[in-house]
Amino acid sequence: MAQQLPSKTPAYVAIAAEIRGWIAGDELQPGDRLPNERDLVERFGVARMTVRHALDIVQLEGLIERRRGRGGGTYVRRLPPPVELSSATSLVAQLERQGWDVDARALRVEEQEPDSKARAALGLAAGEEVTAVTRLGVVAGMPLSVETVYLPVAIFPRAGELTLTGDMRDVLEDAYGVVAVSKEETLTAALPDDEAQRLLEVPRTLPLTRIERIARDSDERALSYSHGLFRSDVANIRVRTPTPKHLR
C-alpha cells in the first residue's frame, strides 16, 4: 500500500520533504544510495515525473547527487563546499585551494565582434573585437559551471594562444601585467539551455545560478565581461560584507 502524503501539499513537495527528512534524521548517510525511481513511485503511489521533480528539488538543495554509468543512481552527498563571490579569486580556483580536484576546460576560443550587451559592458566601439572563451568548470568529476569570458583584443592581443585553464585572473596578469582590482556581479536564476543542460548534466527544469561579471582595473577600465551558469548543488556561493568601521 502506498504511503499517504499530505492532501494539501503538492505531491512532489511532500516527497522532497520526506527525502530531506531521511537525510536529516540520519536514516541515510553521505554516500548512501536512495531507493531507485521505480521503488519511490511504488512507495508513494505517484507518477515517475512527480518523483523526478521531487529529486530535482533535493538535488538543487545540494543534498543528493545523481551518478551515471556503472554504480549509477541517486546518492546522499556531503554538503557542497563554500566559495566566496566577494573574493577576487575565481570560484574554481577557490575550490582548488580547498583541496578539491578541479578542472577548467576551454571548450571554445575565438576572436569575434561581441554582441551589443558585451560591447556595452566593455565600453567598446563598433568593430572592436574580443576573444570569447567558453570554459567548463568541473569539481571532483562533477560539472560546476559553464561560462563565457569576453576579453578585448586591444587589451589582450592573441589571448587565444594562452593556456586558458585555472584562474583566468592569474593567467592574464602573468601574460600581460594587467590586474583586475574590482568587479561588478549580477546574480539571477535561470534555466539551462540545451548546451548547458548537456554540459552540466542537469534536467531542463533545474534552476541554476546565472552570474554576470565585469572586471575592472585601478583606472575603472573594463578588462573583461563574462556570463555563466553555476550549479548550486556542487558549490555554495557566499557573499561576505565587511562591517563599516564606524559600526564596529
Automatic annotation (TrEMBL):
Looking up SMART domains in the UniProt record yields: HTH_GNTR, UTRA
Any one GO MF annotation of this record: DNA-binding transcription factor activity
Q: What are the residue boundaries of the HTH gntR-type domain, all occurrences included?
A: 9-79
Biological-process GO terms, alphabetical? negative regulation of DNA-templated transcription
| Gene3D superfamilies per record | Chorismate lyase-like, Winged helix-like DNA-binding domain superfamily/Winged helix DNA-binding domain
Q: What residues form the membrane-spanning segments? A: none
InterPro entries assigned: Bact_HTH_transcr_reg, Chorismate_lyase_/UTRA_dom_sf, Tscrpt_reg_HTH_GntR, UTRA, WH-like_DNA-bd_sf, WH_DNA-bd_sf
Q: Give the signal peptide as a residue range, or say none if absent.
A: none
Key words of the record: DNA-binding, Transcription, Transcription regulation
The identity of this protein, by name, is Putative HTH-type transcriptional regulator
Q: Which organism is it from?
A: Corynebacterium otitidis ATCC 51513
